[in-house]
Amino acid sequence: MLREVTATRYITPLREGGSLPGLVEADDLGTYVMKFAGAGQGRKTLVAEVVCGGLARRLGLRMPRLVVLDLDPVLGLGEPDHEVQELLRSSGGANLGMDFLSGALGFDPLAFPVSPEEAGRIVWFDALVNNVDRSWRNPNLLMWRGELWLIDHGATMIWHHNWPGAQASAARPYDASEHALAAFRPDVEAAAAQLAPLVTEDLLAEVTAEIPDIWLADEPGFDTPDDLRRTYARPLLARSAVVHERINGIEGAER
Q1: Is residue 57 packed enough to be buried (19+ CB in 10 Å), middle (13-18) or exposed (0-12)?
Q2: Distance between alpha carbon 148 and the CA centroid of its chain, in Å?
Q3: Which residues are registered as beta bridge partners of 13?
Q4: What is the pTM (predicted TM-score) of this model?
Q5: Region 222-250: what's the mean pLDDT?
Q6: What pLDDT, on the 0 to 100 scale, is given for residue 242?
Q7: CA gap 123, 128 in Å, rounded
Q8: Is the confidence at residue 255, as pLDDT, over 70?
Q9: 95 and 110 part of one domain
Q10: Where does a domain end: 99, 125, 152?
C-alpha cells in the first residue's frame, strides 16, 4: 500500500492542470501536489495515477513518489477562491499526493536533448498504458536535477471507463505521432526487449495492491476490490507483449 500522510496546510492551487490540483504540506513535513478525490474526473483518475506511477517506477522510469493524503475539509475554510473551497470541501478523506519537485522545469524539446533509448522507454511505457496526454502540446514531463521525470497519468487506461469493452479497447494501436518525444527517434524495439519481460503477473499484482480499497469500492460488476485489481492487471499484461508492434506515427515503429 502507499504510505499515508495527513495534509496540514493548503498552500495554493496549481492551475496548469484541468483537475485543479493543489500544493499542500503534510504531517511528515513533505510538500505534495494533491489530486483531489472530489474533482470532476473522479476517483478513476487517482487509480490511474497509482497504477501508472507504480508501474513506471518499477520499470526504472523516474516518477515522483506517491502517497495517500488524508484531507480534513476544514482546511478549505479560509480559501478565498470559491471553486477551490468547493473542491476541498468535497474531497474529505483519502486523496492522492505526489512529491513536489521544487525547482523543476517544464520539458522543452528545443532545450533538453533526449537519447533514443530513453525516448523509446517512455514512448513504450505510454503505449502500454495508452497515455493520450503526453503530446508536444502538453508534455507532462519535467526536468529536475538534470534528469527527465514523468508526471500526470490520469488520462491513461481509457478502457477502465468501460470494462465490458476493455479487451477490445486495449487491443487498439497507439498513435505516437504527436508524442512529446517523437522527434528523438525513440527506440521502441530496444525498450520492448528490455521492459516487456518485466511486466509479469506478480509485478502487476504488486502495483495494483497499492490502490486504496476506497477508490475501488462499489464498482459495478465486481464483488471485491481485489477482483477489480486483477481486472486492471489483465489488459496491461496482455498489451505488454505486443504493444511495440502497434505503435504508429514514429519512424521505425509504424505497423
Answers
A1: middle
A2: 15
A3: 22
A4: 0.94
A5: 96
A6: 96
A7: 9
A8: no
A9: no
A10: 99
Residue 201 to residues 30, 192, 212: CA-CA distances in angstroms?
33, 17, 19
By CB atoms closer than 10 A (0-12, 13-18, 19+), residue 235 is: buried
Contact 150, 141 (CB under 8 A): yes
Q: CA 23, CA 32: separation in Å to the nearest integer? A: 6
Task: Report the phi/psi class of residue 252: left, alpha or beta, with left for phi > 0 and alpha for psi in -120 to 50.
Answer: left
Query: Is it the case that residue 77 has pLDDT exceeding 90?
Result: no
Q: Is 254 among the domain residues?
A: no
Q: Distances from the Cα of 6 to the Cαs of 13, 92, 97, 239, in angstroms?
A: 18, 11, 10, 36
Structural domain containing residue 56 = 4-99
The letter for the amino acid at 237 is: L
Nearest to 171 by CA among 234, 235, 123: 235
